[in-house]
Amino acid sequence: MKLRIVILVLFVLSLWQVGFFDPSRIAKVQNIGPFLAEMLPPDLTIMPLILTSIYESIVMAFAGTLMGSALALILAVFSSRLLAPTPVKAVFRTILALIRTIPAILWALFFVVVAGFGPFAGVLALTFYTTGYLGKLFYEAFDSVSSEVLEAVRGVGASRLQQLRYAILPESANYILSQLLFIFEYNVRASSIVGLVGAGGVGYLILALTHSLRYSSLLTTILVLLAFVLAIDLASSKIRAKYFT
């Protein structure tokens, strides 16, 4: 009972802290009506530009996923307790933790500053985010390989590289491929977020439409993007359910 009261009090304090009890802020909710009115009806004339931008986002997600997964696989090898000495493992796990700490949008800001606006910066941002995310999952998968399988390979005098090739990778393959599909789904959505800071894709279009107050075109963009994301999620779920369960 006391725990429930504490949680309730903390919840109310949180709402108060962010302004939920500020009358001036609550009064602004009435702006939703006029805003929604400006979004209707959707502007279908912008469809060619939307499809081009979404295609760019999917290409960004695909390239970022593949490059990031390749880097993650390399770093995971040096982060696995089964494949690397403890000092090496500690260094590479720290590197992965540092990469993973930075969200995709901050990577995008960094690469926009370094490489300029456009999808090139977006791909680099998604690559680094994917590396940090998958690197941890991959070395955990390596470390979870059955000891019986490893002992069988070690019994014939296999080196660590041979253990990786003939035991660890085959045993982890389904999990790795399943996570690749999942991170690709995520990167399609993330590509629209990194675009908000100028890193290309449909997010860049959303930013431009918002700044120009073209709300009917913005609604069309959001609806089309939602349809593509749902389709990719559905296809990916079916593939994982069929081949990786």
The CATH topology corresponds to MetI-like fold
Specify the CATH homologous superfamily. MetI-like
Radius of gyration: 23 Å
Question: In terms of structural class, how would the helical and strand content be classed?
Answer: mainly alpha
DSSP strand count? 0
Q: Mind describing the biggest β-sheet?
A: none
Which architecture name does CATH use? Orthogonal Bundle
Gross morphology: globular
**Helix and strand succession?**
HHHHHHHHHHH
Uncertain runs: none
Mean pLDDT: 81
Number of helices: 11
Beta fraction of the residues?
under 5%
Q: Measure the end-to-end span.
A: 41 Å
How much helicity do the residues have?
over 70%
Instruction: Supply the number of structural domains.
Output: 1
CATH class: Mainly Alpha
Descriptive report:
By secondary structure, the chain is mainly alpha-helical. The protein has a single domain, classed as MetI-like fold, CATH 1.10.3720.10. 81% of the residues lie in helices and 0% in strands. It is globular. The model has no long low-confidence stretch (mean pLDDT 81).
